[in-house]
Amino acid sequence: MNAKVWLVGAGPGDPELLTLKAVKALKQAEIVMIDDLVNPAVLEHCPGARIVSVGKRGGCRSTPQTFIHRLMLRYARQGKCVVRLKGGDPCIFGRGSEEADWLYAHGIEVELVNGITAGLAGATNCGIPLTLRGIARGVSLITAHTQDDSSLNWHALAQSGTTLVIYMGVAKLADIQAGLLAAGMSGEMPVAMIENASLPEQRECRSSLATMQDDAAAFALKSPAILVIGEVARASSEVGLPQLLHA
To answer: Is 35 a catalytic residue?
Structure first.
């Protein structure tokens, strides 16, 4: 058997959003290396696998990436079917490409399996379309946490005409707000802050760019959460698309 690692997206949390291809990989798995944000309910698809926790979460003790690389390589070289199970999609702020490149360089076959990302699932659950003809011509997926702590190009983002979906932004609310306001975005721009996307405990706080910090504090917003900034965030879970189309 050729050494192989599956890099699998487990989706945003709702186990029913797991893809059929992800289920197929899990059923074959002998080793499952699981991230903190993966819903344990998806493990029902791999009852015979050894589960190895390799969690990485901002502000908490995390498993070093170099250790994760070496562990995947060790198990693959033992001939094990290895699944690296990640929250959301492995190639959207999931380091999937980085891990795939490292494994390829060490002679290991890799297969990437997409998962639904939290920004999409959370917005949909709140009745928010991330793109909408005549209102939002695209969507920008952004991380507020950069490896070198560099500032984002807020001017380009503010002028893009796209819906901004910001991951890992709870601790950076002040920077996000200041950057977009300084770049010329209206303080009245709608903002949706969505905590625990797709899970039963999902919560949402509707706000505006000018008041998002105060509203988030009053709401006691916590990670994991995503921010949706744009005109589409005027939509509500009760009214959704018709509200925007006929506004």
So the answer is: yes
Active-site pick, 168, 189, 193, 212: 168
pLDDT tens across the length of the chain (247 residues): 467 999 999 999 999 999 999 999 999 999 999 999 899 999 999 999 999 999 865 555 678 999 999 999 999 999 999 999 999 999 999 999 999 999 999 999 999 999 999 999 999 999 999 999 889 999 999 998 776 777 899 999 999 999 999 999 999 999 999 999 999 999 999 999 999 999 999 999 999 999 999 999 999 999 999 999 999 999 865 545 545 544 4
Element at 154 (helix H, strand E): helix 154-158
Q: How far apart are the first and last CA of the chain?
A: 59
Distance CA 135, CA 161 (A): 8
- Catalytic status, residue 14: no
Scan for tokens 């500032």, then name that residue. 151
Q: Distance between CA 82 and CA 75 in Å, rounded?
A: 7
Residue tagged 């998806």 (tokens): 42
Pair type for strands 225-229 and 163-167: antiparallel
Distance in angstroms (rounded) separating the CA atoms of residues 141 and 110: 25
Residue from 33, 35, 189, 193 carrying the catalytic annotation: 35
Distance CA 226, CA 165 (A): 7
Report the DSSP pairing between strands 190-195 and 225-229: antiparallel
Model confidence, pTM: 0.90
Q: Which tokens in the block code for residue 7?
A: 């890099």
